[in-house]
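User: Predict the complex.
Assistant: Input components as received:
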Amino acid sequence: MKYISTRGQSPSISFEDVLVSGPAPDGGLYMPETWPTLDYRRLRGKPDLTYAMLTATILAHFSGSPDWYPVIDRVTKEAYARFSDPRITPLRELGPHRWLLELFHGPTLAFKDFALQVLAPLMNEALKRKNRRALVVAATSGDTGAAAVHALSNQSNIDLIVLHPKGRISDIQRRQMTTAKALNIRNIAVEGTFDDAQALVKALFADHAFAGKHNLAAINSINWVRIAAQAAYYASAQLALGKPDLTFSVPTGNFGDAFAGLVAKKMGVPIRRIIIATNVNDIVARAVQTGTYARGSVHATISPAMDIQVASNFERLLFEYYDRDARKLRAAMHGFERTGTLTIEAEALKKIQSDFSANQITEAETAATIKIVHQRLGLLLDPHTAVGFTATRVAGLDENVVTLATAHPAKFPEAVNMATGTKADLPAHLHWILSAPETCDFLANDVNALRAYIEKSPTTH
Ligand SMILES: *Cc1c(COP(=O)(O)O)cnc(C)c1O
């Protein structure tokens, strides 16, 4: 499979290259040149299909290269064996036509584990084949960092620097990163918001000389393989429920997860529509509702993994619905970078609105949902999942809707406790992080400070 840039001015690259790269040199994001299709009838007829096999099938399509198949089979098998629930993606019925897809049984308790547990060893393998090392620099709103630290710890050919916005992630999220012992991991708390941290990382990647010198690579959802791996749970939910017309409600920040739903649909999974559920940081929801994609300012909420304004993967969505017209997309994105506003063409918007709906949820509504679900069902929802479940109100009563439960409630004890008066227990395998020593460096919101940090940073090279 070849990968092309959404902005059309970089050469196409291979699966092996897409595994280890950041954004395309022209500032765009890589997309597969064509959509592979799943033999869905055959998958449905396989009662012994494991979750690892399903993911491996999807990734094999996106590799398009048989010499990757055995590696993909091995790493998917090993990755999902680390999950604490043997069903990997348990479905829980919440009421008529409503289900929860639990995506928090991985090592760091959020859906990010699904992709990162697979991406890390694949990336390491690609680097070994190239006889190279890479420095992964990532900004996190909390869960990506934790999942990346776990997945990349002790990978032989990778060093990791994670930037988180100081004081804007939960204690558990921070401790999951800062208690890492592996020598190839470094944490930085940045004075600023997640968008500030992400802008720093983007600036590093945009400096081609610097990015080349340090072999920078990305593991946030601009990395295609993350999106591809996440498409698997849309397929697994559909296969498990067997409903021909499933709608998914997806708590949305950087728009990687919701976009993975579109990927599943493009590959042939029968999906009716995807509900984009946001908190008050609703740039993507507004864009889908009104056609205007306009940057605002970031508000801190109880669902911090979605406290962002600019959603990187929105560019992939536009590219697809602009019928992959890279020149048009490039003009639109350059305009957005200049003015902070982008107006989606009417025809593209109509098509987007037939595949996606959107709903933005206030803090009070999120807390009310956590409280009500706890009272009625004795179940604790994390605040992100609560945003997703609340947004199912835009669906018909007889529409079959699966809400993605993106994090374990124990990751956000303050918000859950505020709404319900109780807390979810942290799974036993994570108790040690509560008392382990933390290691973290601090930086101003300044790209030159970050550059200097990397220049003088002792790595395991
Ligand atoms: C990352 C994250 C999200 C947002 O996912 P995107 O792919 O960035 O849209 C939602 N919920 C939780 C718990 C997350 O960690």
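The CA atoms of residues 9 and 26 lie 6 Å apart.
Let me know if you want any component modeled separately.
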